[in-house]
Design brief:
Number of strands: 9
Structural class: mainly beta
CATH superfamily: Hotdog Thioesterase
Low-confidence stretches: none
Order of helices and strands: EEEEEHEEEE
Distance between the termini: 38 Å
Strand content: over 45%
CATH topology: Thiol Ester Dehydrase, Chain A
CATH class: Alpha Beta
Strand order of the largest sheet: 1-2-3-7-8-9-6
Pfam family, one: ApeP-like
Helix content: 10-25%
CATH architecture: Roll
Protein name: ABC transporter permease
Organism: Flavobacterium cupreum
Number of helices: 1
Number of domains: 1
Length: 155
């Protein structure tokens, strides 16, 4: 896929915890996202996007690969009443080289290293990097656990 896609189609996150604007590219083993850091972002302190924000941006980028499995069926139709929960189970070899500032636009890329799928959950390891232009901001390996839950409609 080479067209920009709204990340909200792939993640349960919503503002103010949404740390990705668009998916620029996604397939079964690679994802690339873009994020404009706004001054009022909850992870901006004194005009700087702090480490926790970079890590959350990276985790949400990684989740897009796994999340699409649950939100869309094999024909590309959206699955209704599906929610997912997920968390970072490990971060390895984390290196933060530089912190971006408010109004910077960062690109985050992740490659799937390994994946295990159960009936309603996925465990995966992703190799990640975040960039500001040609400057590397972050690099790491992230393990994610994502689980499908069924929504119930209350009337």
């Amino acid at each position: 896929m080479r067209t920009a896609v709204d990340i909200q189609n792939y993640l349960p996150h919503r503002p103010p915890l949404l740390m990705v604007d668009l998916i620029l590219n996604v397939d079964a083993s690679f994802v690339e996202t873009v994020f404009l850091i706004r001054e009022d972002n909850i992870f901006v302190s004194n005009g700087v996007f702090i480490e926790a924000g970079l890590i959350e941006n990276t985790a949400q980028t990684c989740s897009a690969i796994v999340g699409k499995k649950y939100f869309f069926d094999e024909n590309g139709s959206e699955n209704e009443n599906i929610n997912v929960i997920g968390f970072i189970s490990a971060i390895k070899n984390l290196k933060i080289h530089q912190l971006p500032k408010a109004y910077d636009t960062i690109i985050t890329r992740a490659n799937l290293v390994s994946k295990f799928e159960g009936d309603d959950y996925t465990l995966c390891t992703m190799s990640c990097e975040s960039l500001l232009g040609d400057k590397k901001l972050l690099e790491c390996e992230i393990n994610l656990f994502i689980q499908k839950t069924i929504s119930t409609v209350v009337s």
